[in-house]
Amino acid sequence: MEESVSQHSNHRRIFLIRHAESQSNEVSRNVQNIWRCVSQETRLPTLSEWNSISPLLSFSLNSDLSDDGANMTKQLRKKLIDSNFVTEYGVELFVHSHLTRAKRTCYEVFDNTEFEFENERKTEVHRGTNTSISFLLSFFLIDIFFYLIIGSIPIIQHDHIFEKNISEHCGIADMNERTHNFTQWLLSRPETNIVVVGHGTFFKHLTGAEREMDNCEVRLVLLSEDGQFHSPQEIIKGGQALLQVV
User: What is the 3-state secondary structure (H, E, C) of 103-141?
Assistant: First the structure.
């Protein structure tokens, strides 16, 4: 991987990370499961499955992480530590969107300080329900490592890397304008190795990718001076695969 990247030393390396699974992602996944049951006539959906999609009645555009999403951030943090990600790639800057699901993903993965989440569910999200000594010790050591390695790397918020909004869905506004402006912003930065924690649809439009990234997937793309993204490489597989701890 390093060999292929070194051939493009005059390019910026942008590490895209889609936010962990949100509550709205969870509802969408449950809807798909119910649709498969009905369309394939394999079985009738259970009452609990119907209840799982009830949040559709009060859908939030700024949804929080689901329980699986909170676990995804823990597993991704471990994988990045194991692969020595920050030092291996010389990460110089972390950027996240203003939406809760991306903001929480960024801080839970890359920062060890107390962070004010909108729903104030800090403790259980960071540590879960496992209170064994070995489990807590492993996170304690990870926190120390991250503090020493990335304590001085800035984490900043960018307010224009959100998902497609209503006006863009209706054709009143153009999402390409936002992706263009963000690309120019990246090119204006002095850093050349930047992590961006954001949203699947935005990243797909930004890079011209064929598929949308999975939750907590880490993908490296090269950004040339002419504003073109190319040479995508999956660094860490995301989605439910991230939760299958061996």
Answer: HHHHHHHHCCCCCCCCCCCHHHHHHCCCCCHHHHHHHHH
